[in-house]
Automatic annotation (TrEMBL):
InterPro entries: 6-PGluconate_DH-like_C_sf, NAD(P)-bd_dom_sf, UDP-Glc/GDP-Man, UDP-Glc/GDP-Man_DH_dimer, UDP-Glc/GDP-Man_DH_N, UDPglc_DH_bac. Pathway: Nucleotide-sugar biosynthesis; UDP-alpha-D-glucuronate biosynthesis; UDP-alpha-D-glucuronate from UDP-alpha-D-glucose: step 1/1. It catalyses: UDP-alpha-D-glucose + 2 NAD(+) + H2O = UDP-alpha-D-glucuronate + 2 NADH + 3 H(+). It comes from marine sediment metagenome. Coiled coil: none annotated. GO terms for molecular function: NAD binding; UDP-glucose 6-dehydrogenase activity. GO terms for biological process: polysaccharide biosynthetic process; UDP-glucuronate biosynthetic process. This is UDP-glucose 6-dehydrogenase. Belongs to the UDP-glucose/GDP-mannose dehydrogenase family. Residues 178-199 form the UDP-glucose/GDP-mannose dehydrogenase dimerisation domain.
Length: 199
């Protein structure tokens, strides 16, 4: 398994997670969290520097709620990227899991470059998890989308995800913008299917 540091600025949430208290209900999640805590592979902290220092791949998984004009509010993504950049000392891969508009990768990389001289690579790696089936979807994904132009990063991300894949061909590589668009396209398709089913 992999060692994982989960960072959040909500100290009450982190305190609960350290006790194995999960603030949401997902079948099987509590058992997985507690098991990996006992094995010393899963850590919860408010210390961002500790998370950055102990990780090779840093996943950004923050909300992108609708702004008043209906567009996605990516301020939390940009803020998190800036905070991480301020703590980078060595090479890291920074990957976004959140649903973001096409072109967000450019804004994120620009912010990181403006705040650190440390080397890094950026990956667009959107999640495709269903509420109520998130554990199953993560452990047995039907596809993993990875947006990167770096052969070295492709190799690292493939090593990370391969143990979860029944078929290696379902790890799909593309550029950053295409990965961001793929997530929006999938969401649009699902919304359309639900609309037709409700007719």
């Amino acid at each position: 398994g992999n060692n994982c540091f989960c960072v959040d600025n909500d100290s009450k949430k982190i305190a609960g997670l350290k006790k194995g208290l999960i603030p949401i209900y997902e079948p099987g999640l509590t058992e997985i969290v507690r098991h990996n805590q006992k094995l010393g592979r899963l850590h919860f902290t408010t210390d961002l520097k500790a998370g950055v220092d102990n990780s090779l791949i840093i996943f950004l998984a923050v909300g992108t709620p609708p702004a008043p004009d209906g567009s996605a509010d990516i301020s939390a993504i940009l803020s998190a990227a800036a905070e991480i950049a301020g703590r980078l000392a060595d090479y890291r891969i920074i990957a976004t899991k959140s649903t973001v508009p096409v072109g967000t990768y450019k804004k994120v990389t620009d912010i990181i470059k403006s705040r650190t001289k440390a080397p890094f690579d950026y990956v667009s790696n959107p999640e495709f998890l269903k509420e109520g089936a998130a554990v199953e979807d993560f452990m047995r994904p039907d596809r993993v989308i990875i947006g990167t132009t770096s052969p070295a990063v492709r190799k690292t991300m493939k090593q990370l995800y391969s143990p979860f894949m029944r078929r290696a061909s379902r790890i799909i590589f593309m550029d950053h913008a295409s990965a961001e668009m793929t997530k929006y396209a999938a969401n649009t398709m699902l919304a359309t299917r639900i609309s037709f089913m409700n007719e």
